[in-house]
Amino acid sequence: MDDSLDFTATATATAPAPARAPAAPPPPPNSPLSRLQARLETLDLTGLPRVSPVASKLAALNPADLDSTREFCQLIEQEPICVARLIGLANSVAFGVPGKKFNSLDAAVARIGLERSGQIAFGMLCGQALNKGLSKAWCEFLWMHAMAVAHGASLIANKVAPQERANAYLAGMIYDIGTLVIECLQPGTLDVLLETAETRELKLGEVENVMLGKARRAVSTALLEKWSLPDEIIVAVAERDPEALEPDSLPAILAVADDLARTSAVLGAVYADVESPLPLGSVMLEEISPRRAGLVSLDEDALMTLAERLSGQVLAMRATAQTFAQTS
């Protein structure tokens, strides 16, 4: 993948492609794309947001090492907003029980599950640090996509690398974190990328990879190091180049899950009964690209089966994403 900040054209000739596709003409001076290129080259990373120390502890936490749910709750109780949101999530349509009300953190965690509660609490705390300044549409879409990546990565890991299942879910939740921060540092970036995708009849993911590649890697690495997250999570979130990914590794699993979350099978289910905040034609993929699919040892049928399973988890993903997207 060429993830330089120069926008390159997609080769369309039927003859064998050269080793490197020729660069497209540079965007006109003072155009939105040209101005975005200049801003991305000079991003000021000194203004990266901080996150609650509880989030860093949760990222390194193995729920299996906890003696009890109460021990976990004692950690979460340091963040009262997180407590309230976990209880609210336990009572949502995705997790709730008709006629039953969960009023305590202990009961909410028991309902959601200890491992998933820790992962969700981590996502909530990240949302508190990153949501300010994001438009409602982008906030909703990015967190919904993050939840789809998290669920998808967990499903894929369970098949090809079970030992990575917990990390896959956690890293999936913050896979878009570099994009979120770039939008916070440079408001309007995502609108420019979407407009470019629509104008050039490309997919948003393609434009993101080309335009944000280096900047996103730098931002993700700097931010997650600042947040003291485990090295394996930092590498998995920051590294996107298929040529650098080891098959069935955590970064490879996330790359495939990212495509899986954009397929029509998944996005069509996510937005089947609610309006999409973005034009799906510029976002949705009909299938996972063969290059991405080859990063994990699953055939096409197996991946499509996982997409169907993922599409059945829409309520849980939507409820959790809405919780993450809250700004206060």
User: What is the N-to-C order of secondary-structure elements (H for helix, E for strand)?
Assistant: HHHHHHHHHHHHHHHHH
Radius of gyration computed on alpha carbons = 20 Å
Highest-level CATH class of the largest domain = Mainly Alpha
> How would you describe the shape?
globular
Assign the CATH architecture of the largest domain: Orthogonal Bundle
What is the number of independent domains?
2
User: Any idea of the CATH topology of the largest domain?
Assistant: Hypothetical protein af1432
Q: Report helical residue fraction.
A: 55-70%
Structural class: mainly alpha
CATH superfamily of the largest domain: Hypothetical protein af1432
Q: List the uncertain runs.
A: 1-24
Account of the 3D structure:
By secondary structure, this protein is mainly α. It has 2 domains: 48-130, no CATH class; 133-328, Hypothetical protein af1432 (Orthogonal Bundle). The chain contains 17 helices and no strands. It has helices spanning 32-41, 53-59, 69-76, 80-90, 105-112, 114-130, 136-160, 165-173, 177-185, 189-200, 204-226, 231-238, 250-262, 264-270, 290-293, 300-311, 314-325.
